[in-house]
């Protein structure tokens, strides 16, 4: 059961099918453009969408809003130092701000960053520095159905080759995303992290963690990795941070706060460069774009997030939804992780070709039938077309991410999600595809406009 009871509630927004049809048409079939009060169950993101605890709220009331050197900063700093072990810690307002500041200070044009998988903003921030971002996911990640426990791993052979052949494009950093959000929310093993750290040390390249879901990764390590069953998630997390040369963190995930992030570093000189940029673009080094209240709430969230009872229930409720979805005959990326389930829309809707976006078709159908908001992770997110709409690049898989906000929805909410998917699975041929009517050149999925492709079109 949930290791908490509910003290404050917020009403759900219920709409009619006609209202949802009108809303979806108005936003040109792009769920990012929907108003939240048009959505009943919002699984668009697990980022900044969690429920804070009474203790976090109380900590927030202690917030010290002094411009510099606030008590909140020092309380927060102690928590982050003890968790990560990094001597240099800088607050930032969210993960991508931390990325921008670290990458602008660390990367040079013409170099490359290697990763198990870059998250989309992370890739964008690497590329904005003139550096190239390469994803080297392990081979096991390609089989969506297998039970391989650590599909978030980096391909160590490919990594070693890239590090050894770095004459043309020097490798500026290796970035390990834990858990691997772009790769199905799959965890990275400690063995993989240790071996990656060793390769990085040998080639004198810094290893940076994208630690947004460090606690969920640590939990999955305690559950799946030989030798870690008797360790606490906190101990595993501490080990992971100490293996790396630094981290970027979006605390909107495993900080269980609505806003917040940080950079942690071992290198004093690099930290000083980041600090200068932080002051110029985010705020003084003791607040980094956050209020004292935010820092105190993050500090408390970072302690709560590694509690075994919290993580066990988070895994359990994700497993509950995964089981209901499988019962409905719908496939997800296996094994189920914690922060999201990734539905195999390509397999559910095989009659829709990639350039008519099966993932988007499922996203729209979940909204139309159940008022559920989700995100496409397929050819709309990763693909490209020419100016005539002909596909130039399609994604390897057509997925839909059902992100699970922390401590927000209960099993009956997830029963509704599974029932809606089951309803779609009864008659998948009735679902049609979409075509693009307008798009922007970078991160197109946020602002894209689409229209339905009806049979005979
Ligand atoms: N890294 C990872 C792995 C992420 O998943 C995200 C955000 C970021 C960095 C950027 O952090 O949002 O605080 O600036 N992921 C959200 C998501 C948006 O829905 O997966 P941010």
The fraction of residues in strands falls at 5-15%
- What is the CATH top level name of the largest domain? Alpha Beta
- Tally of individual domains: 2
Structural class: alpha/beta
Number of separate strands? 16
Cofactor: pyridoxal 5'-phosphate
Family: Belongs to the beta-eliminating lyase family.
Domain Aromatic amino acid beta-eliminating lyase/threonine aldolase: 42-419
Protein name: Tryptophanase
Feature tags:
single chain; 457 residues; alpha/beta; Aspartate Aminotransferase, domain 1; Aspartate Aminotransferase, domain 2; seven-stranded mixed sheet; three-stranded antiparallel sheet; 16 helices; binds ligand F0G; PyrdxlP-dep_Trfase_small
Briefly, what is this?
Keywords: Lyase, Pyridoxal phosphate. This is Tryptophanase. With 457 residues, the protein is of the alpha/beta class.
What is the topological layout?
Layout: H1 17-26, E1 41-42, H2 54-61, H3 71-84, E2 88-92, H4 95-106, E3 112-115, H5 120-128, E4 132-135, H6 156-164, E5 171-177, H7 190-203, E6 207-210, H8 214-224, H9 233-243, E7 246-250, E8 261-265, H10 268-281, H11 292-304, H12 308-327, E9 340-344, H13 345-348, H14 358-370, E10 372-373, E11 375-377, H15 379-382, E12 384-385, E13 391-393, E14 399-403, H16 411-426, E15 433-438, E16 449-453
Parallel strand pairs: 1-10, 3-4, 3-5, 5-6, 6-7
Antiparallel strand pairs: 2-8, 7-8, 9-14, 11-14, 12-13, 15-16
This protein binds ligand F0G.
